[in-house]
UniProtKB/TrEMBL annotation:
It is an enzyme of class 2 (transferase). This is Aminotransferase. The keyword Transferase applies. Homodimer. It holds the Pfam family Aminotran_1_2. It comes from Ideonella azotifigens. The keyword Secreted does not apply. GO terms for molecular function: transaminase activity. PANTHER family: AROMATIC-AMINO-ACID AMINOTRANSFERASE, ASPARTATE AMINOTRANSFERASE.
Length: 403
């Protein structure tokens, strides 16, 4: 077939570039030797590399040895993984777990957890609307739209206040229709770095309850805010309120296992019987999409979480990553001052997680990229977790030049 007009794909349009992945491509093609990638949300160590955690290395060695001794590989999902995720997310002794009221499945990263939940919700309530924060992780809208939902936003970021527009957020929730799915960032809000306080969560929970909304907590950064327990406390607040809700989990960041795509979806149900039915539906979605999740990364995570020595090592390494980001936040503010920037950037030290909404404008972000090879998102979002002792001086001096 030579004529393009009659070819099978003649009418296929070029899809828009993913804003972050597009930046990555541009970054990779950039020949500037001083280039710095603050676009993608990846934690890199002092040398700008993805760390291979010692706990991961040890678990992997243990698994290889066990497989050698056994002489065969496991074929499908790992029961220990689902239980370990539950214990991490809901707390070891949570009565919910004893009551069998949580349906947990392994998912292809946090993204997969969101997608499994979205597909299930679409079957459950096809006409429901989805609300995401304004702004939100750029994939939330696309993912829920792709699952067939109409996606709208609730106010979140207040640029003037450099914080959360909590009144606006609450008002939006209090006027949402029953059944509306509300996607909430459990901690380390992406992209703003601003979280709401426990007392504000109580108000969100009250609104969810009063309006009959469906809460979907996206927990992609557990341990990157204040600690594993601290960051997971919001889950306990929802549980205490007696609400049925969704939680997606990601280990991409907390285990530095970006490439393994290890995540999960947990659905809190009203009874053991309901849990069994929900679980059966989630399994159908998994079965008809990719049959079973891959085992390797999940085995590593399950081994670390269930082996006390490795678990302790993981918590230490996670704290190390968390504290290094905090240190970089402080250094960033100091070095901007040292570079002669008079604008106050101290708010950066109050933000949590990997990102900062820097307040830099689109033209400034473009200049940073085009003139200095410093890549961030046009919205001003930069990944603080990609700063290190070697690049921070160059980045802050470049910023000083574009301000
Ligand atoms: C808020 C949020 N949710 C979910 C994800 C997806 O996590 P994963 O990479 O494990 O799919 C990310 C990753 O950037 C994120 O920032």
């Amino acid at each position: 077939m030579s004529s393009s007009a009659s070819s099978l794909f003649a009418a296929v349009e070029m899809a828009p570039r993913d804003p972050i992945l597009g930046l990555n491509e541009q970054f990779n093609a950039d020949t500037n030797p001083a280039k710095v990638n603050l676009g993608v949300g990846v934690y890199t160590d002092a040398n700008g590399k993805l760390p291979l955690l010692a706990c991961v290395k040890a678990a992997e060695a243990q698994l290889v040895e066990a497989a050698r001794a056994r002489g065969y590989l496991p074929i499908d999902g790992i029961a220990a993984y689902d239980k370990a995720v539950q214990a991490l997310v809901f707390g070891e002794g949570s009565p919910l777990l004893a009551e069998g009221r949580v349906a947990t499945v392994q998912a292809i990263g946090g993204t997969g957890g969101l997608k499994l939940g979205a597909d299930f919700l679409k079957k459950l309530n096809p006409t429901a609307k989805v609300l995401i924060s304004d702004p939100s992780w750029e994939n939330h809208r696309a993912l829920f739209t792709n699952a067939g939902f109409t996606v709208d936003t609730y106010p979140y970021y207040d640029a003037d206040k450099q914080g959360v527009n909590f009144d606006g957020m609450l008002a939006a929730l209090n006027s949402a229709a029953a059944g509306t799915v509300v996607v909430l960032h459990a901690c380390c809000h992406n992209p703003t770095g601003y979280d709401i306080l426990p007392a504000q969560w109580e108000q969100v929970i009250a609104a969810v309850k009063a309006r009959g909304l469906v809460a979907f907590l996206d927990m992609a950064y557990q341990g990157f805010g204040d600690g594993i327990q601290e960051d997971g406390a919001v889950i306990g607040q929802f549980v205490a309120a007696g609400i049925d809700f969704f939680v997606s989990t990601s280990f991409s960041k907390s285990f530095s296992l970006y490439g393994e795509r290890v995540g999960g979806l947990s659905v809190v149900c009203a009874s053991k019987d309901e849990t069994a039915r929900v679980l059966s539906q989630l399994k159908i979605t998994i079965r008809t999409n990719y049959s079973n999740p891959p085992t390797h990364g999940a085995q590593i995570v399950a081994t670390v979480l269930t082996t006390p020595a490795l678990r302790a090592q993981w918590e230490e390494e996670l704290a190390g990553m968390r504290n290094r980001i905090k240190k970089m936040r402080g250094a960033f503010v100091e070095q901007l001052k040292a570079a002669g920037v008079t604008r106050d950037f101290s708010f950066i030290t109050t933000q949590r997680g990997m990102f900062s909404y820097s307040g830099l404008t689109k033209p400034q972000m473009e200049r940073l990229r085009n003139e200095f090879g410093v890549y961030g998102v046009d919205s001003g979002r930069i990944c603080v977790a990609a700063l290190n002792e070697h690049n921070i001086g160059y980045v802050t001096q470049s910023i000083a030049k574009v301000i």
